[in-house]
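Running this now, will post back.
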Amino acid sequence: MMSRFGFTHSDCDRAEDAGAYVLRALSEDERVAFAAHLETCAACRAEVEELQIVADQLPMAAPQLVPPPELRHRLMSVVESEAELLRAAGPEADRPAPAPHDMRLRDRVWWPSWLVSPGFAAALAACLVLAGVGAGLLVSGGGDGPGPVRTVQAEVTAPGARATVAVQDGKATLRVTGLPAAPNGRVYQVWLMREGTPEPTHTLFSVRPDGRAVVNIDEKVDGVEQILVTAEPSGGSVIPTSAPILDATLA
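Update: finished.
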């Protein structure tokens, strides 16, 4: 029986494994058993063929973004942990419980059973994120990933305070420790020095009670000679109104 969107509704008890089979979410023993089952079950073969078309389109559906380098490691750790839990719980762990009067969910709504399988849902989520990682690697240039990080030690006028600037792919992050709070009614503002002229940024920040702060600078720092920080009136200034308390030389 076909659904109104073209998916096959199979009465075979093994049909719920089709989605996990396509996404390679079955254990090795389950995969081998289901592959053998496909040789004798035309309904499951048809469902696998339909699901394979959907799975093949997943990489194109994901947004093409450059992923952080640690994303793949975190993702695979979660996927492996979930797979271990499913293996420990047994082969019935990812099967949905039957509805009252033994009415399956797929018999009450139009979507196919594999869409409501918890195992398939987890596998699909993992596949989508992995597709995003793959697409991001393609966009970023053949899997090269982000460029190297350059860290610069800044000069700070406040006694005991320290600061560093990390630069990567034209973006900069400022980290300060031991920096006293800005005077009352003022806020710290970041400036970019190009050709001897300080350019204001939209990056305003304050520090925690322990004098720490991690500040992502909004503007690109390509071609910037120095990064300065001054204490400015609340809301920031278009020209510096006080001497820099922090100076990081980039070039």
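Residues 118-139 form the longest helix (22 residues). More later if anyone needs it.
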